[in-house]
UniProtKB/TrEMBL annotation:
The lineage of its organism: Bacteria, Pseudomonadati, Bacteroidota, Flavobacteriia, Flavobacteriales. This is LytTR family transcriptional regulator DNA-binding domain-containing protein. Transmembrane segments: none annotated. Residues 133-228 form the HTH LytTR-type domain. Keywords: DNA-binding. Coiled coil: none annotated. InterPro entries: LytTR_DNA-bd_dom. The keyword DNA-binding applies. It comes from the Bacteria.
């Protein structure tokens, strides 16, 4: 799942467009923060890759907003501004905003902006494991599978190493790309590493991992999805 955040009161056209944005573009709103003074990273739950800022209502300078939010996350979000002022829009562009939407706002214009964003800026293959302000970066292309370990998760890597994540699987799984599929309650596999499926024994065989993994009946429908992703495996995986 890919997430976005809104800072400032959203215009009516944006409120009208939000159900379509979430249903058809696969972007989910983490919330609406009316002013930067009420911004609290811990309340978000997930990392927003895109942040919409209503620049006409901002209680902080653009640079201060970028500095405050950029300090909190292991990855830098993308920003799109909303404003009735071309001068503020130009300032936002100079500060690094991807785009600025000028009033009057229309539902069609907002949907077009979101659609362009989703297909221009693909989800990053870099995953950030965070503990307080300690950020550990791993390349998801090198993750063979992920395994729940009580209230934490372990990333099993292509080279056989293990990277410990201090968040549980329920929190971690929604942040992964769609080629990561659950096969049982405690394991998520990278479909690109599957080279054999035994339907009779309910087993999956993964490259760079010696033992087969069992999938359960509850997740049987995920096997069809895994088969589709196997056919799209990048040659760099091998």
């Amino acid at each position: 799942m890919r997430y976005y955040l809104i800072i400032g009161d959203p215009p009516p056209a944006l409120l009208d467009a939000m159900p379509t944005i979430e249903a058809t573009l696969g972007l989910k709103c983490l919330g609406i923060i009316k002013e930067m003074a009420s911004y609290r990273k811990r309340l978000l739950g997930h990392y927003p890759e895109l942040i919409l800022v209503h620049l006409d209502q901002a209680t902080m300078s653009i640079d201060d907003i970028l500095r405050t939010i950029g300090h909190d996350f292991g990855k830098i979000p993308h920003y799109i501004g909303l404003t009735s002022s071309p001068a503020k829009g130009f300032e936002a562009f100079k500060s690094g905003f991807l785009d600025v939407i000028l009033a009057p706002y229309t539902r069609e214009g907002l949907l077009s902006t979101f659609s362009n964003y989703k297909y221009t800026y693909e989800a990053s293959s870099i995953f950030c494991i965070e503990e307080y302000y300690d950020f550990h970066y791993i390349n998801l292309h090198n993750v063979v599978f992920i395994q729940a370990d009580n209230y934490t998760t372990d990333f099993i890597m292509k080279d056989g190493s293990l990277v410990h994540n201090f968040k549980n699987l329920k929190h971690t799984f929604p942040l992964l790309p769609k080629h990561f599929q659950k096969i049982n309650r405690g394991q998520v596999i990278n479909s690109f590493y599957v080279f054999k499926i035994n339907m009779g024994r309910k087993e999956l065989f993964l490259r760079h991992h010696g033992k087969p993994l069992k999938y359960t009946r509850k997740y049987k429908t995920n096997i069809s999805t895994i088969k589709k992703w196997v056919q799209k495996t990048p040659i760099t995986i091998y």
